[in-house]
Design goal:
It catalyses: (R)-malate + NAD(+) = pyruvate + CO2 + NADH. The chain is α/β, with parallel strands linked by helices. The chain has a domain of 209 residues: Isopropylmalate Dehydrogenase (3-Layer(aba) Sandwich), CATH 3.40.718. The protein is built from 12 helices and 12 strands. The relative contact order is 0.18. The structure holds nicotinamide-adenine-dinucleotide, 3-isopropylmalic acid (IPM) and manganese (II) ion.
């Protein structure tokens, strides 16, 4: 069969790391005889929004639903388009309307990269953040009253549903069940956020009864962030609401040396809609145009996409190539965020060559 993949590079470094993601994907497809067909779309701030006054065409849903997966770079160019307009007009729309309710974000200290945490070596940091991806704190329920006056009030409600929370918890428990350590940590804040979070804890406790082999603990989000830094080795699968998961999935990768390597999978596990694969990082206007962005987050996201499409061996081969290059490459091949003097292209090319070599 031919896998049809929609490619949306986006803005800023999205357009720089995506060619390396595509190069790695094509190298993998050749090696493993996987038939992929890539279709590129220019939906982004620069310059689709500026030309059309919207982030997506009206028929985006019919167009993209036809694909087996979406390979995504990063969106956002706040100088030209306010972030909440661009992100609610694209990425967050995809997550919600394609019901990609699991955001799976591996966090692993890779060989050859120095953790900013003292004495941490590969193996010490190796966990997943499972982030609820369609509701929670990212809600469109709320509004502004008395706008522009001294009585101005803004409200944005957190919305959690039993259906929405239970399905992401189930995914997280099943993931923990398959891992050797069988451990799940829940991110809570039931001391201060006294309606939704005690209820979240109750949902976790109830779900845990179905997975007796999984050991469960929980931390309030404040001390949990501290423990990511102090004791990253404690964690195996961390499940969190939308906002807490967002924060943890930048902090975790930062503990592994750079957010530039972190991948993510926005998954609709039932396969009713296409899932979306993207690096955790954004469009990084501060380094855009310099050709120095780390392409590993994009390439690793491609590995997660192939695994999702049923080609775990191909995904594993990409990760093995990433690790081999990081371990062996000269510093003029790897990018500055991991201590090198190389470029997006030099690192991407080395990984693709390694994939093809096997
Ligand atoms: P960011 O992730 O773009 O950048 C944060 C910092 O990390 C910057 O210093 C940047 O240079 C560095 N960085 C990020 N990716 C890197 C890489 N691959 N290699 C080396 N360094 C890297 O976050 P931000 O600055 O908060 O956001 C910039 C824009 O991106 C905003 O418009 C924001 O809304 C958007 N954004 C989009 C996504 C997405 O599309 N998924 C995710 C996060 C942020
Ligand atoms: C992410 C990003 C997005 C989020 C932004 C850009 C809306 O930070 O994918 O982690 O908050 O989910
Ligand atoms: Mn984020």
């Amino acid at each position: 069969m031919t896998y049809r993949i929609a490619v949306l590079a986006g803005d800023g470094i999205g357009t720089e790391v995506m060619p390396e993601g595509v190069r790695a994907l094509e190298a993998t497809a050749r090696r493993f005889n996987i038939d992929i067909e890539l279709t590129h779309f220019d939906f982004a701030c620069c310059d689709y929004y500026l030309e059309h006054g919207k982030m997506l065409p009206d028929d985006w849903h019919q167009t993209l639903i036809e694909f087996d997966a979406i390979y995504y770079g990063a969106i956002g160019w706040p100088e030209k388009v306010p972030d909440h307009i661009s992100l609610w007009g694209s990425l967050l729309k995809f997550r919600r309307e394609f019901d990609q309710y699991v955001n799976l974000r591996p966090c692993r200290l890779l060989p050859g990269i120095k953790s900013p945490l003292a004495n941490r070596v590969p193996g010490d940091i190796d966990f997943y953040v499972v982030r609820e991806n369609t509701e929670g704190e990212y809600s469109s329920v709320g509004g502004t009253m008395f706008e522009g006056t001294e009585r101005e009030v803004v409200i944005q409600e957190t919305v959690m549903t039993r259906h929405g929370v239970d399905r992401v918890l189930k995914y997280a428990f099943e993931l923990a069940q398959q891992r050797p350590r069988q451990k799940l940590t829940s991110a809570t804040k039931s001391n201060g956020i006294a309606i939704t979070m005690p209820w979240w804890d109750k949902r976790v406790a109830e779900m845990s009864e179905q997975y007796p082999e999984v050991s469960v603990d929980k931390f309030h989000i404040d001390i949990l962030t501290a423990n990511f830094v102090m004791h990253p080795d404690w964690f195996d699968v961390v499940v969190a609401s939308n906002l807490f998961g967002d924060i943890l999935s930048d902090l975790g990768p930062a503990c592994t040396g750079t957010i530039g390597v972190a991948p993510s999978a926005n998954i609709n596990p039932e396969g009713k809609f296409p899932s979306l694969f993207e690096p955790v990082h954004g469009s990084a206007p501060d380094i855009a145009g310099k050709g120095i962005a780390n392409p590993i987050g994009q390439i690793w996201s491609g590995a997660m996409m192939l695994e999702h499409l049923g080609h775990k061996d191909a995904g594993d081969a990409i990760l093995a190539a990433i690790e081999a290059v990081l371990e062996e490459a000269d510093s003029n091949v790897v990018t500055p965020d991991v201590g090198g003097t190389g470029t997006t292209a030099s690192l991407g090319q080395a990984i693709s060559e390694r994939i093809e070599k096997g």
